[in-house]
Amino acid sequence: MEALTFSDLVRDLIKDGSTVTVGTSGNELHGVIIAFDLVLHVITYQDLSPGGGLHFIPLSSIRSIGYEDAPDGVYCYVDLFKK
Protein backbone atom coordinates (compact mmCIF):
# COMPACT_ATOMS: atom_id res chain seq x y z
CA MET A 1 0.00 0.00 0.00
CA GLU A 2 1.22 3.45 -0.88
CA ALA A 3 1.72 6.00 1.90
CA LEU A 4 -1.35 8.24 2.14
CA THR A 5 -1.38 11.53 4.02
CA PHE A 6 -4.49 13.15 5.43
CA SER A 7 -4.24 16.02 2.93
CA ASP A 8 -3.90 13.54 0.04
CA LEU A 9 -6.93 11.60 1.29
CA VAL A 10 -9.13 14.70 1.58
CA ARG A 11 -7.98 15.97 -1.82
CA ASP A 12 -8.82 12.58 -3.42
CA LEU A 13 -12.23 12.40 -1.69
CA ILE A 14 -13.10 15.88 -2.97
CA LYS A 15 -11.83 15.20 -6.49
CA ASP A 16 -13.61 11.84 -6.80
CA GLY A 17 -16.81 12.93 -5.03
CA SER A 18 -16.60 9.81 -2.85
CA THR A 19 -19.37 9.23 -0.33
CA VAL A 20 -18.22 9.76 3.24
CA THR A 21 -20.18 8.63 6.28
CA VAL A 22 -20.02 10.88 9.35
CA GLY A 23 -21.18 9.64 12.74
CA THR A 24 -21.92 6.24 14.23
CA SER A 25 -24.72 3.69 14.48
CA GLY A 26 -28.07 5.29 13.99
CA ASN A 27 -26.78 8.86 13.72
CA GLU A 28 -24.92 8.70 10.43
CA LEU A 29 -24.89 11.28 7.69
CA HIS A 30 -23.99 10.25 4.17
CA GLY A 31 -22.47 12.89 1.96
CA VAL A 32 -19.34 14.28 0.38
CA ILE A 33 -16.49 16.49 1.45
CA ILE A 34 -16.59 19.51 -0.82
CA ALA A 35 -13.78 21.66 0.63
CA PHE A 36 -10.89 21.66 3.07
CA ASP A 37 -9.66 24.91 4.61
CA LEU A 38 -5.98 24.38 5.42
CA VAL A 39 -5.73 27.67 7.34
CA LEU A 40 -8.76 27.20 9.61
CA HIS A 41 -8.47 23.37 9.69
CA VAL A 42 -12.11 22.84 8.75
CA ILE A 43 -13.72 20.33 6.39
CA THR A 44 -16.88 21.41 4.55
CA TYR A 45 -19.25 18.46 4.30
CA GLN A 46 -22.41 18.31 2.16
CA ASP A 47 -25.12 16.02 3.57
CA LEU A 48 -26.74 14.20 0.64
CA SER A 49 -30.05 13.34 2.34
CA PRO A 50 -33.15 15.21 1.17
CA GLY A 51 -33.03 18.64 2.75
CA GLY A 52 -29.46 17.99 3.91
CA GLY A 53 -27.22 20.96 4.44
CA LEU A 54 -23.63 21.99 4.77
CA HIS A 55 -21.64 21.06 7.85
CA PHE A 56 -18.40 22.77 8.77
CA ILE A 57 -16.40 20.21 10.75
CA PRO A 58 -13.28 21.39 12.61
CA LEU A 59 -10.46 18.86 12.48
CA SER A 60 -10.28 19.07 16.28
CA SER A 61 -13.74 17.42 16.37
CA ILE A 62 -12.59 14.35 14.43
CA ARG A 63 -11.72 11.34 16.55
CA SER A 64 -10.78 9.02 13.69
CA ILE A 65 -11.09 8.49 9.96
CA GLY A 66 -11.48 5.08 8.37
CA TYR A 67 -10.61 4.54 4.72
CA GLU A 68 -10.82 1.48 2.52
CA ASP A 69 -10.14 1.34 -1.21
CA ALA A 70 -12.13 -1.83 -1.98
CA PRO A 71 -12.73 -3.42 -5.39
CA ASP A 72 -16.33 -2.13 -5.36
CA GLY A 73 -15.29 1.44 -4.52
CA VAL A 74 -13.94 3.69 -1.80
CA TYR A 75 -15.42 3.49 1.68
CA CYS A 76 -14.65 6.29 4.12
CA TYR A 77 -16.09 7.23 7.50
CA VAL A 78 -15.41 10.04 9.95
CA ASP A 79 -15.99 9.41 13.64
CA LEU A 80 -16.45 12.54 15.75
CA PHE A 81 -15.79 13.12 19.44
CA LYS A 82 -18.97 12.92 21.48
CA LYS A 83 -20.03 15.95 23.52
Notes on the structure:
Helix content is 13%, strand content 48%. With 83 residues, it is mostly beta strands. It has a six-stranded mixed sheet with strand order 4-3-2-1-6-5. The longest helix has 11 residues, at 6-16.
The rounded Rg comes to: 12 Å
Kindly, what is the distance between the CA atoms of the first and last residues, rounded to a whole number of angstroms? Answer: 35 Å
Average pLDDT, to the nearest integer? Answer: 90
In percent terms, what proportion of residues is strand? over 45%
Order of helices and strands: HEEEEEE
- Low-pLDDT stretches: none
Structural class: mainly beta
Query: Percent of residues in helical segments?
Result: 10-25%
**Spatial shape:** globular
Major sheet attributes: 6 strands, mixed
Brief account:
This protein is mainly beta and 83 residues long. Helix content is 13%, strand content 48%.
Helices, strands, pairings?
Layout: H1 6-16, E1 20-22, E2 29-37, E3 42-47, E4 54-58, E5 62-70, E6 73-80
Parallel strand pairs: 1-6
Antiparallel strand pairs: 1-2, 2-3, 3-4, 5-6
